[in-house]
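REVIEWER CHECKLIST
Item 1: Sequence provided? yes
Item 2: Single chain? yes
Item 3: Sequence as submitted:
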Amino acid sequence: MVSTRHGALCRRSVHTQTEYPLKNAAVQVTGCRECQSLFLPSAGGRDAACVRCEQVDDLIRMVAELKEEVERLRAIRECEREIDWWSNSLQGLKERYRGETPQMGVEPLPCRRQAEGGDLGVEEEWKQVPARHRRRCPPLPTPPSQVPLQNRFEALENERSTATEEEVESVPRRIPRVRRSTPRIRTASTKNERRVIVVGDSVLRGTEGPICRPDPTRREVCCLPGARVRDIAKKVKRLVRPTDYYPLLVFQAGSDEVAKRSPKAIKRDFRDLGRQLRGSGAQVVFASVLPIGGMEAERCAVRINSWLRDWCDRHNFGFFDHGKVYATPGLMAPDGMGLSRRGVRILGQELAGLIDRALN
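Item 4: Structure as written out by the authors:
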């Protein structure tokens, strides 16, 4: 029994001795790189900052902030002192000069040392400066009794005028610029048989028969498909001969461009054509523009025809109005971009009747 207990005690003591070295081996320490102090590492195994170093950094930062605050407060105090000094100085001067007359001289301001030392109340240090009177201007000299009436520079003026005239004569005179006028059509004054010329755009295609049948030798139809008013103005110079006597010119233009160009541009071309025909000795008749090209072209044609009527009256040109004849169904092509055969026949008959009335 005794031996058994002793063996058990021995086993316990051996077991206890083996546990203590294991506990001591688990404790690890590390040191700070800056202050060389020891501290326990963090649980994650990473290097942590030293608490003492962090506190030192916080103290240094706080000291720097305190220094900046002290400098700011000093600057504020200096400014307040300066303001107080100036306010005291001005108040003392205002009380001192309140009862004095304006004729007295202005005394200098006290220096800063005197104001800070409290010497403003002592009257012995103030000195009175008498006012300085301005010098009187000397009187102006009396004008002479006799004023010379002759011009001493008269000879110089004569020489200058002579030289100026010579320079003007030597300068070559500039030839005045002649404004280029619009070329006009001329016709003969000798009485002959009258010629009839009908000029227009594509709407005249097929109207030659009704127009030229009464007198094929004296009547002519010039159809220019797709031509504008300005193109017709260029063509009419070749059609009218200088030997023609009082010819009749009928213009059926503007229908091909009424749907493509603005009314302003078309009116400008009509004006240019009128300047070319004015004074030519020919009888000129403008027919109204046919509305070819849809509803927009119809509205534009109405505006142009209204203006064209007034313009022809002002410049002694004839105006032939088709009216709303071609708004009748069947006179326009199915696509609305031209006249049908019936419409072409009616247009030829209308122009032929116009020519007969003009010649008779």
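Item 5: Key structural point noted by reviewer: Strands lie at 30-31, 38-39, 196-200, 219-223, 248-252, 283-287, 318-320.
Item 6: Recommendation: ____
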